[in-house]
Amino acid sequence: MIDIEVLHRVSATLAERKAADPDSSYVSGLYAKGTDAICKKVAEEAAETIMAAKDGDRLHLVWEVTDVWFHTMILLSHFGLGVDDVLAEFRRREGVSGIDEKKSRGAT
């Protein structure tokens, strides 16, 4: 089971970093660089996750997925969203066929 409280604590820290001096922390600096820089970081971490999976390195995979989650949380925070928004969407989708869910969004 996920320790949701750790995700909430990280979210709170990310929110605090939004107002901090960009030179004071990695996250503050990333916020200051804007959406493109944050998206680039998410993509970079996703690629590293894929490479770890293809290598079959389970520990490295966990590290990289953690990096993806972290940077995705920064991206969500950048747009005024957070863990609870994602959890609400998971709740909405729970028990719904993936095929049906995609159809409901008009996805192909």
Can you describe this structure?
With 108 residues, the protein is mainly alpha-helical. It has a single domain, classed as Helix Hairpins (Orthogonal Bundle), CATH 1.10.287.1080. Helices cover 77% and strands 0% of the residues. Helix 1 crosses helix 4 and helix 3 packs antiparallel against helix 4. The longest helix has 21 residues. The radius of gyration is 16 Å and the shape is globular. The model has no long low-confidence stretch (mean pLDDT 92).
CATH fold annotation: Helix Hairpins
Question: What does the average pLDDT come to?
Answer: 92
Total strands: the figure is 0
Structural Rg: 16 Å
Give the biggest sheet: none
Number of helices: 6
Low-confidence stretches: none
Topology summary:
Blueprint: H1 4-18, H2 26-33, H3 35-55, H4 58-78, H5 83-93, H6 98-104
Structure in a nutshell:
This protein has 108 residues and is mostly helical.
Features:
108 residues; mainly alpha; Helix Hairpins; 6 helices
